[in-house]
Amino acid sequence: MGIFDRMKGVFGRKKKEAIPAEPSPDLEPIPLTRPAGTLTPEREPSLPREPLPPREPLPLEPTYRPEERAEITNVRAKLDLLLTEIDSIKTQNQMINERLKAIEKALGEIRGIRYY
Predict the structure, then answer these.
(1) Strand ranges (DSSP E) for the chain?
(2) H-type alpha helices, 1-116
(3) Over the chain, what is the mean pLDDT?
(4) Which of 14, 22, 41, 102 is the residue whose CA sits 20 to 30 A from 116?
(5) Is the pLDDT of residue 84 over 80?
């Protein structure tokens, strides 16, 4: 006896008798002929169209002027310089931390020595 035994009615399949075999007489049959009336643009039959005349491509303007390129390379050089400075500061910080640990260790050893 499991959890799903009680829910059998909820998850079970419907009986075949509950599904009608024939359509109800209230529904109208769907006509298989072409609908009558005026054709809307969505329902117009497609006709062969004339090809469009060839167009000339738009002239491409240069995206960067020489001054802008010089500015971009200048900014890149400055960024590279800043990144190298940050890296050198990181290595200096690591060296200072190592020295500080060595000093703290030496102080701990000195405090451990007692003079009577």
Answers:
(1) none
(2) 3-6, 8-11, 66-112
(3) 76
(4) 102
(5) yes
Residue 11 pLDDT greater than 80, yes or no? no
Residue 17: band (very low, low, confident or very high) from pLDDT cuts 50, 70, 90: low
Contact indicator for 72, 64 with CB cutoff of 8 Å: yes
| Residue 45, C-beta contacts closer than 8 angstroms, at least 6 positions apart | 39
pLDDT of residue 96: 97
Q: Dihedral sign for Cα 100, 102, 103, 108, please.
A: positive
Q: How many CA atoms lie within 13 A of 34 on its CB side?
A: 7
Q: In sequence order, what DSSP letters do the residues of 3-31 get, joined into one string?
A: HHHHTHHHHSPPPGGGS-SS--TTSPPPP
Confidence (pLDDT) at 90: 96
Residue 57 φ/ψ, nearest 5 degrees? -65, 150
Contacts of 35 (CB under 8 A, 6+ apart): 43
